[in-house]
Amino acid sequence: xxxxxxxxxxxxxxxxxxxxxxxxxxxxxxxxxxxxxxxxxxxxxxxxxxxxxxxxxxxxxxxxxxxxxxxxxxxxxxxxxxxxxxxxxxxxxxxxxxxxxxxxxxxxxxxxxxxxxxxxxxxxxxxxxxxxxxxxxxxxxxxxxxxxxxxxxxxxxxxxxxxxxxxxxxxxx
Length: 173
Prior knowledge:
21% strand, 6 helices, 7 strands, alpha/beta, seven-stranded mixed β-sheet, 173 residues, single chain, globular
C-alpha cells in the first residue's frame, strides 16, 4: 500500500496526474480503479466541471460519491483497491459549510489513510500561495486547507506538487 499526496493549484494537472498513475497501476494487475469523489454540484458551472472530469476518466472507472464520509469510505478499502481521492479541498469545504467538526474530521481522515491497505492518490489544492482572502470564512478555509495538507502529508508515503502540468517530488524536512 502506498499513499501519495498530489498537491497543486487550480488547473495544475494534479487530477490528470493522479488518474494516470492509478490507471497504470490498475493495468499492471488487471483491476478497475476507483474514484472517491468529494464534489457536490450546487450550480451549473460545478455540474460542468464534474461532467468534464467524468469524460476525462471514461468508462474504465468505478466512482463513489463521498462529499462528507470520506474517512468511512477509505476505511472500507481493501488491498485490491487502486484509488484516487479527488479532492480534499472540496471535502474540506463540504465539512466547513456543513458546520461539522473539522478537526475531528481531519483526525478521522488521517487515521483512515494511515491504516489503509490500498494504493491511494489523494488530490488536494495548494491554496496558501494566493492572495489573502478578504473575509473570515475565506481566511479560515485557507488556514484549514494548509493544516489538512500537512496532516495528510504526514501519513503519506510520497507527496508531489504539480505546476503547469509538471511534477515536483516533495521531501520531508
